[in-house]
Each structure stands twice: as structure tokens, then as C-alpha cells.
Amino acid sequence: MTDIRVPTLGESVTEATVGQWLVKEGDTVNADDPVVELETDKVSVNVPAPSAGTIIKIAAQEGDTVELDALLAQLEEGAGSAKSNGSANGNGKAAAASSAAGSSAGEEIEVVAPSSGESVTEADIGEWLVKVGDQVSQDDTLLSLETDKAAVDVPSPVSGIVKEIRFDEGATVTPGTVLAIISTSDDVPASAPAKPAAPAQSSSSASAAKLTPASERVVKEHGVDPAGITGTGKDGRITKGDALAYVKSGGDAAQAPAQAKPAAPRDLGPREERVKMSRLRQTIARRLKESQNTAAMLTTFNDVDMTAVMETRSQYKELFEKKHGVKLGFMSFFVKACCHALREIPDVNAEIDGTDIIYKDHYDVGIAVGTEKGLVVPVLRDADQKSLAQIEKDIADFGRRGREGTLTMEEMQGGTFTITNGGIYGSLLSTPILNMPQSGILGMHRIEKRPVVINDQVVVRPMMYLAMSYDHRIVDGKGAVTFLVRVKENLEDPQRLLLDL
Fold this sequence. Notes:
GO terms for molecular function: dihydrolipoyllysine-residue succinyltransferase activity. Residues 1-76, 108-183 form the Lipoyl-binding domain. The protein is α+β, with helices and mostly antiparallel strands. It has helices spanning 94-101, 206-210, 213-222, 240-248, 279-294, 307-324, 331-344, 388-404, 477-492, 495-499, and strands spanning 2-5, 15-21, 28-29, 34-39, 44-48, 53-58, 65-67, 71-77, 108-112, 123-128, 135-136, 141-146, 151-155, 160-165, 172-173, 178-183, 297-305, 351-353, 356-358, 365-367, 369-371, 374-376, 379-380, 417-421, 440-444, 448-454, 457-471. It contains ten helices and 27 strands. Strands 17, 20, 23, 24, 25, 26 and 27 form a seven-stranded mixed β-sheet that branches. Strands 1-8-6-3 form a four-stranded antiparallel β-sheet, with no helix packed on it. The protein is globular, with a radius of gyration of 27 Å.
């Protein structure tokens, strides 16, 4: 029997929501056939069957939230095929699960600390849910680990008895560290006995009960009031990440009032409907609010005469499409104009890291793409080195796959600057919000004919308002205005791009 588990979804993604099952129990599948769609906060991912066989169990239902390496389904392979030991999921459990497959009575299996992403090098043991001597079934949660980003439950790789627990709650461990030992046995029950429910907490001890050992240590070290911290862990527990975020935001029992507790859901009217926000929409909301709370954001405006670009596009659009197989749009001109300006004003292409500034000698431009599920920002790598045709092809591909939900995590990470076009929806003017940790974002708007004065004559020209939002902590007003003027000049006289002026 082969387990189908949640794969690694990207360095900052720790959980996903089961979107739609493409198979049901009893169905036969081929190797690499998609069996379930997972929805993360950034993209939808299809999980393939690791081998040919029959789906004998579906362990996670549509709408469930599952963490990395959680069991999704079990597959009985075709007769005569070699038993798969599962994919290398990068969380340290593969070896344990593989050795458990052919375990004999009394074999000891190690439970190791999983990896929680490339940027996470350690975690704190939050809470043990079992003790030595307890019987557990495969995939039962043994303990929770807390990083500065998320709380992760560690499941048992096999059914057996907890023989040894090597670390106490609050201890700091690194990925791959052995946390516990499970002893297997042929007569271990198929299901571990249900654990008794914890007694109700009194109101006076409710705040203390929500703290895990790791978050309690942060609270004590910084002298903050836990009553003001909103817990995002299981059952509302305050994780280490929650406590650190509260401290970073300036929360203090003596100085900052307690955060308001979420209000109870209000009653719905006869013509109202309550729909849970998708994980993508929740992440968009959180990241935009974080951007406003973190950056000293300011917006400067200008307008650009689009006559030259529109005439160039009108003159060559048929020949361009015939040769390159893609339509010549406006976005490629803006990408080129921005890359040219970023070279001159490097602060706009940089980011703040603590008390340091990281300057970047590459120009990876994020292009905001609207989809039915929300806004995604795939990245044009080395956009300064791409031709107009390649930029248009990449943007068209991003738009198509964004609507299909097939963009990958890697394609939406690591941008140095972002362009968003509200003009396609009819927007005349807006103030775009920074895509942190980037320091600048350009907002395009609709083109409309307006009277302007040129050489003391009032003429009608196709004009577009441009909005440049920037982080004033790193970009001065002079730099931001100069950047926007350079973009304007490059668009009004595209030959400047050819001559590198």
C-alpha cells in the first residue's frame, strides 16, 4: 500500500486546503494521474498518483486544511508491482515511513523533526500530545512544533507504542533531530484509544492556558501581556510566531492596549450569504495590511502622453504578430521603461533587511494578474534582457495559467519591482500598495483623450495617469519622482530605450 501525502509546496507554505477530489474510493489510476487539487494561499496544485493502482482510502475531505506531508489517501498498487515508499517529501519522515513498511514485531522507528521551509532552521517544541507508553496509530499527531512562521503538527509515521520522548516542551530543535521513538508490534490495535477531552479552563486562567511553552518564553522575555495576542495555532493557541509578531509590532502590556478580540459572527439577513474567504484571499488581505503597517508608503503621480507608443504599436502590430505569434501590447513597453529607470535609481530596486539595504543587480519584474480567485503576481525574470516579443509571450502565458490556477510557487517569488494595470478595468487613478519586501510599484491606468498644452497650443492627446508608490524608508522623494519622470520620458520617446539615454 502506498500513501499519497501533501507535497512540499514552497519555502513559505506550511499548509493547504483540499479543494477537489478528482477520484473516489475504488477508482483505478495510472502513475502521475492527478488525484486531488490542493489550494494554498498562492496557487492551486494537483497532486499526482505516485504509481498505478486502486484508491482504497481517502483520508482528507474537501475543505479540510492539511499540513505538509499529511496523509491524503492510500493507494493499493497493481498486482506484482513493487511497493513504493512514497515520495521524498523533504520533511525527514520518508526514511521512517519506508523502514516501517516492512517492520517486524518490536522494531523501533524514529520520529524526526520535519523541515518547515528553506528559511526555517530551527523550531521549538510546543506541546506533546502523547506520553511514554501511549498507543498511537499511523498519522496520529504526536506533538506540535512552533517556528517563527507557523505551528506544525508532527504525525506518527507508524502504529505502535511511544517508547521514548527525547525533548521536553519548549526545547529548540533543528530539522532532522530525533524527537521520539515508536516501538511497533504486530498486535498493536488499528486505532489508538480516544484521548479524554481536556477539562474546561476557568476564565481567570484562559490567557495562560493559550500559551505554549515557546510562546510563554517570548512573553516573559519581553514582558508583554498575552491577553493582547491573538492566537493562530490549533484551538486558538498562541504560537511563538504570534508572540514575536506582537512584540515586533510594539505590543506591550504597559504601553499598548490589548488587541480587540474577534467579534462573534453576526446574524445574517434574509438576502445575505456567508462564504468563507479562500486561503488566497486571506493571504492577500494579510499581506496588504502588513505592507501598510510596515512600510512608510507614499505615492507620487505623473501623466504620460501615449501617442508615440500607440503609433508604434499601430504601425507594427500586424507584422509583429505575424513574426512572433503574439500581439504587441502596452505592458512590454512599460516593463522596458521601468527596467531602464531602475538602473538609474537603484534604491527603487532594493529592499530593507533589518538595518541593512540589499541592492540588486537583476531586474525581476512582477506583473499583477487578476484571476477569479484573486490577484497573483508572477515574475518576469531578468526582464531587462528580454525582447518585447518575449515579454508579451510571458505575460500572455502568465495570464492564461493564472486563470487556470497552474502557476507555480517559484514563478511568484523573488520579484524586485511590480507593475499593476488597473486601466484594463477602467481605473482612471489609484494608489497601488507595495508588494513587500519590494520598495516600489508602478500603477498604470486607462488611456483617455484629454486636452493638453504643447508649444503653447491646446491639442488632444491620449493620456495616462501613472502612480508610483514607494517605501519612503529607503527611497527619497527625489529618487521616486526622478524614476517616474524617466518612465514617462522613455514612453513618450521610445527611441531613448534603443539609445540607452
